[in-house]
Amino acid sequence: YGAGSGYGAQQGYSEERSSARRVADHYSARSNQTLEERENSPIIHLKKLNNWIKSVLIQLYTRPGDCVLDLACGKGGDLIKWDKAKVGYYVGVDIAEGSIKDCMTRYNGDTDQQRRKKFSFPARLICTDCYEARLDEYLYEDAPFDICSCQFALHYSWSTEARARQALANVSALLRPGGIFIGTMPDANVIIKRLRESEGLEFGNSVYWISFSEEYAEKKFPASRPFGIKYKFHLEDAVDCPEWVVPFHLFKLLAEEYDLELVLMKNFHEFVHEYLQKPEFTELMRRLGALGDGRHDQSTLSQDEWEVSYLYLAFVLRKRGQPPSQ
Ligand code: SAM
């Protein structure tokens, strides 16, 4: 690994760059948890629910042998999901050096037991800023990809128009015609609704808080300035860094400029209601243990965790064009 983090001193530190650096440092500093620490996390069931949602997306849209691009792959928490989907090749990219190292350790197996049971696909890991770098320059030998995934991370690209465009340009340039882009990110509609319902500029519950600056005291967000709407997000035992609002209708329009057409967009609550009906996914939920016996009755997932899941949405886009004939 090591295409370079793209943060050479000669490049200077603009405000955008230092925000991106803050995000990278935050994730880099998060150490791998032991199994016991993970099980004791105040958001363990939310983490399991998120894993279920990512697994459902992967199972719905991946075919055996697919070539996968995992943007903002983090510590490789989805490697097992891709293995279960029997993918043929995997490229993971992340800005956080620490996460890429952890991802590599996970891929190679960090215990004797894991080392015996290697992943069945070859992989390449790259440490760079997915929203600044032209990824086609790094990946011209690996492209085109059948599927691109960006889980819980695309909102970090909406700090400026240039970064949001680079993110979509990268996806579009690297997907084959008919290729699929799946992802999860905060649901701006819910966040802005919650902000307007709250008395001040902050809202949350026992496991999260979101805080907007005085700049947004009027709680107005003109459509003419859709990028750079920053807030601070804190999620217990997971996130503590700046994030950016992604107005979904504008995201959809911008994606169309890059030949990426919307296939699906669902808030997590709607997603759970819909896919939990399907027996294969009910069974997966039971195995993961996020919702106890398969109903979100809070027997395991707390009300506060369930509220956090309402802050997110899942999306699927398709690259225009006919897939090459087999
Ligand atoms: N996708 C992984 C998952 O679902 O487990 C990790 C999600 S984590 C919430 C967000 C990830 O986005 C972090 O690993 C962070 O380093 C990465 N990230 C944030 N900004 C990025 C950027 N500009 N380029 C690449 N990765 C970025």
* Largest pleated sheet: 7 strands, mixed
Large-scale geometry: globular
Structural class: alpha/beta
Unreliable sequence segments: 1-13
| Biggest β-sheet: strands ordered side by side in the sheet | 3-2-1-4-5-11-10
Helix content: 25-40%
Q: Can you describe this structure in just a few lines?
A:
The protein has 326 residues and is an alpha/beta fold. The chain is built from 13 helices and 11 strands.
How would you characterize this protein structure?
By secondary structure, the chain is α/β, with parallel strands linked by helices. The protein is 38% helix and 22% strand. The protein is built from 13 helices and eleven strands. The chain has helices at residues 15-29, 35-39, 44-61, 79-84, 97-108, 112-116, 135-138, 161-174, 188-197, 248-257, 268-275, 279-288, 303-309; strands at residues 67-71, 89-94, 123-127, 145-151, 175-186, 202-204, 208-212, 230-235, 239-244, 260-267, 312-319. The chain has a seven-stranded mixed β-sheet, with helices on both faces. It has a four-stranded antiparallel β-sheet with strand order 6-7-8-9. Helix 1 (15-29) runs parallel beside helix 5, helix 3 runs antiparallel to helix 12 and helix 3 (44-61) packs parallel to helix 13. It is globular, with a radius of gyration of 19 Å. The two termini are 32 Å apart. The model is unreliable at 1-13 (pLDDT under 50). Bound molecules: S-adenosylmethionine.
